[in-house]
Design brief:
The complex is a heterodimer of chains A (322) and B (606). With 322 residues, chain A is an all-alpha fold. Chain A is built from 13 helices and no strands. Chain A has two domains: 76 residues, no CATH class; 226 residues, Orthogonal Bundle (MetI-like fold). In chain A, helix 2 crosses helix 3, helix 5 packs parallel to helix 8 and helix 5 packs across helix 10. The two termini of chain A are 14 Å apart. Chain B has 22 helices and 22 strands. In chain B, the strands form four sheets. Chain B has an eight-stranded mixed beta sheet, sandwiched between helices. Chain B has a six-stranded mixed beta sheet with strand order 18-19-20-15-21-22, sandwiched between helices. Chain B has a four-stranded antiparallel beta sheet with strand order 2-1-4-5. Chain B starts with 5 loop residues before the first helix and ends in a 7-residue tail after the last helix. The chains are: A mainly alpha (322), B alpha/beta (606).
Chain lengths: 322, 606
Amino acid sequence: MNWRLLQQVGMRLGANLLTLALISAVTFLLMNVKAPEDIARSVLGREVSAPQIAEFVARHELDRPVLARYAGWMADFVRGDFGKSIVTGRPVSADVVTRLGRSLLLAALGSLVGVTAGIAIGVFLARRIGSKTDFRLVTGLLVLASMPEFLIGIALYLVFVVWLGWFPTQAGMAFSFGDVWARAVTFVLPAATIALLLMPHIARVARAATMEAFASDYVDAARLRGLSERQVNWDHAFRNAALPLVSVIGINLVYAVSGVVVVDYLFGFPGLGALLVASIGSGDLFTTQAIVMLFALVIVAINVVVDLVMLWLNPRLRLAGR
Amino acid sequence: MLRDHDELAIGGEPAGGRLELRDITVRHPGPGRDGPTVWNVTLTLEPGRILGLAGESGCGKSTTAKAAIGFRRGGEEVSGASVLSGLDLLGLAPDARRRLWGNRISYVSQSASLALNPSMRVGRQLAQPLRRHRGLKGAALAQRQVELFEMVGIPNPQAALKRYPFQFSGGQQQRIALAIALCCDPEILILDEPTTGLDVTTQARISALLRDIADRMRIAVLYVSHDLALLANLTDRLAVMYAGEIVEEGPTRAVIAAPRHPYTKILLGLSPRIDDPRLVPGIPGIPPPTAVLDHCAFAPRCPYAADACHTVHPAPAAAAHGGVVRCLRADELSTVSPEPVAFAHARDAGTETLLIVDQVRLHYRNAPRPSVDDVSFKLAAGEWLGIVGESGSGKSSILKMISGLVLPTEGYMRFGNIRLDSLALARPRELCRTIQLVFQNPDASLNPRHSIRQILMRPLVLFRGELGAREREAMILAILDRVRLPASVADRMPHHLSGGQRQRVAIARAFLARPQLLLCDEVTSALDVSVQATVLQMIADLSAETGAAVILVSHDLALVRTMADRIIVMKDGMVVEQAASDALFADPQSAYTRELIAAIPRLGAA
C-alpha cells in the first residue's frame, strides 16, 4: 500500500458514494413530486373521502416539504430503517431483507454458473481457433448473446416446464419454506436463465483474451526460457488474459442483478424484483425506494470490487504516473 | 572494432558450446505457399564468436533463428538438424528441449517491451528460470539476481527488481531481457533484432555490452538483424539471407570489404553512410515470399543476371573471402560494384523564405517538460531540411505544429505571408493543400477500407475541385506511374500492397495536392533498405519537379545526411545544433552531435 494507491481507492469510493446519493435523490423525487393527495389516492383508490385522504397524508407526513421528507428518509435509510409501507403498514425491511437475500443468492448462483461456464468455453475455444467446433460454437454464442433475458427465460419455461414437465408450473411454485428440495428446485430455472444471459458474453471475451495472450511474445519468451507449461499458462498467459475478462465480468454481474427483476416476474420467483414490480403498481413509495436503493448499493459494491481487482491485477493502473 | 579470433583457433578447441545448423528447412504448408520459407540453411556458431544473420523483412532470418533452437509454431514443418554437443535439438523430446531453453540456449526477441510479461515484476521473471534450471532459492537467488542486473548495467538493481517492465525505458527493458537470457550462463545466445527500434546511442551501448559478454563468457552468439552496418561492426562472421536461403557467408570483414553476391553488394550500397552521402538506387521489384528452387531467387531483380541465372538454381560454392556464396557469376563479378548516386533534388533553391518558425514552444498539459522548447528556424523554397534526434526529442512535434495538428503553446510561425496560428481544420483549404504530411506508418495513415483510387481521389476532390472526372482519373494513373506502381493498383485495397508500395501511395497522395512544403515524419523507418532508397528517390524526384521544400524528420543521421541540405539536431525539445549538412559532419560543434555521430555504425570503416 502506498499513498498514491490509497488516494486512488479513496477517489473511486468517493465517486461511488456520490453516485449513490444522486440515485437516491432522483428516485425519491420521481416518486414524491406528486401532490400528497395524489399519492394517497394511488394507494387508497379513487373512491375515498377527503377526511380519509387528510388522515392518510397526516399519518405519513406527506404534507411536509419534499426536501425535508427526503432528508428524513435518507437519514433513516442510512441507519437501516427503511420506513413503514404506506400500503400494508408493515415495516418495509421485513419484506425487503428476506427477498434481498433470495435475489442475491439467485444472482450469485446464476453468475457463478454463467461465468465459470463462459470462461471454460472461452478457454476451450481459444485453443481451437479456426476449427469447425470454434466456428459453430462462436456462432451459437453470438445468437445467444443477442437474445434478451425474457426470451431465454420463456424458452427455458416452455421447454422444461410446459414441454418436458420437469418443473412445476408457476402456480405450483408457491414458495414452501419447509421443503429444502422444493426450495432448491425453484432456483434452477431462474438461475439457469441468468447463467445463460451471462455465459455468451463471458465466453466471447475469454476466448479473445486467451487467444491474444497465447499469441503474445511474452508467452513465447516464457516458453523459450524453458519454464513449465503450468508456469507459462498461469503466470504468463492467463494472468494477462484475466485483465479484460475482469472488467467484462463486472459489467455482467450488474447485468445479472438487473436481470433478477425480469426473471422473478417470468418464473414467479419470490424475490426482490417481484416485490419491486408489485410495489410500483400499488404506489408503495417507501418499498419502491428501498428496493431501488438496495439494487443501486449492490451494483455500486460490484463496481468497487471490480475496480479493486483491476488495480490489483494491473500494475499500470496501480503505479500510473510514477 | 572488428576482432580477429584466428589466434584462438590455434590454441585448440575452445571451451564453450558450439551449435551446428545443418540443412535447416522450414515449410509453412498452406494455400499459395508451395516453396519452403527457409531452405537448407547450414551455419555454425562458435564459442565466443558472434555470427550475424542479415536480410530484409520476410527473408526467413527470424524463422531460421527460432527453428535453430527447436521452437516451432503450429503448422510449421522443420527438417534438418541443429546440433549442440551431440544433441540434435530438433529431434529432442519437448521436455528435454525445455531443459535446454533458457539454460544452455537462450533467445532474446526483438521487442523487450513485448517479450516481458507486462503484469509481473521483472525480479520474478528473472527468478523463474533461475529456480527452474538452477534450483536457486532465497539469498542465493537474490544475490544472483542483483549480480545479473549489475552485469547488464541496470542501476540500483535491488529496487529495479521490484519494478514492472513498463517502468523501464526501451533500452533498459532490453537489458533486462538480456539478463534473463544470461541468467543460467548459456553456451548459445540467439538474438533476434535485439536493438531494432532503440535509439542509436542506446543501440551502441547494448552492442558493446553484447560484444563484451560474448567474449568474456565465451558464448556462441547468433545475431539476427536487418542492419548491415551494425552487424559489420559487431560480428565475426556474417551470413546474408535472401528468400529463405543463405546467399553469402564468410568472415565479416572480408564480406564487407569484398562482397561476392550481387545482393550483398547492393545491400551494402543501399545503407546510407555518413561518410559518403550517396546511395545506390533501390532494387526494383519485391522478393519472392518463399524460397525459389528452380532458378536463382534474386535473378529477377539482379542487374547482373545472365540467362543461366533464370534457369539454374546456384549451389553454395567456396568464395575467395573464405566463406561461401550462392551465385553463378560470383567469380566474374568479383570486381563489379554498383555505383552510388547523389540524390538529385532542387539543391540550388531560391533564396525566398518559405517558412519561418520563431521561438516556438509546445508544452502538453501534465507533461513534466515542454516537448518543444524555444525552437527557431527558417526554410527556403525548395530547400531540404533534416531534423534528427532520439525518440522524445520533439522532432515530430515540430511537424505536428507546422501542419496544424497541434497548436504551439508559445511562439510564431509564418508560411509565405500567412501566419500559422490555427489548427488545420480552421485553416484555409489552400493552406492545407500547400503543406502536406507523410507519416511513418502507411498501414495507419491509409484508410484500410478505401481502395487506392479512393485514397488518391481525396486530395483531388478536396483541393482540385475544378477538375473533371476524366482528368482526375488521368492524374491518378499518372502519379501511380510516377511512383512506379502499375495502374492495376488503383482498384486494390491497402492490405494487398507491401509496406513499401503503401508508402509510395501515401507519397503519391501528398504530391497530388501539389504542395509547396512536404513534411516527412520517419517515412522510411518501417521499410527495408532496398525499398527505402526507392522511396527517397521518389520524394527527391517529385520535389525537384514541383519545387517543393521538404522537412525530413528521422532518427537516422546517415539518412538525413544523404538527403538534406541543412540539419537541425534536437535533444529534449531543444535545438542542439543547426548547420549545413556537410559542415555538421565535418565539424560538429556540440558534444551531443559528436556522440550521435560516433554512435552510428559505419560500413567499411574497419
